[in-house]
Description:
Layout: H1 3-26, H2 29-45
Helix pairs in contact: 1-2
Amino acid sequence: MSARHKLNAAYLNGSLTIAGIIGGIFESYVVFGITFAVLMIGNIQGGDIRLNRRRPRR
């Protein structure tokens, strides 16, 4: 498993944990789902989760 995959998994697990805590506080699966979606979108947009390989420099 590459370092990129390990980092992506760490961010995914962190997002699941935080969403689980917030969903548990509100006792709502809807809140869990919305929180998880917002965290994942934020991680992807922020560049923390990289979906594609970086292209080699020319």
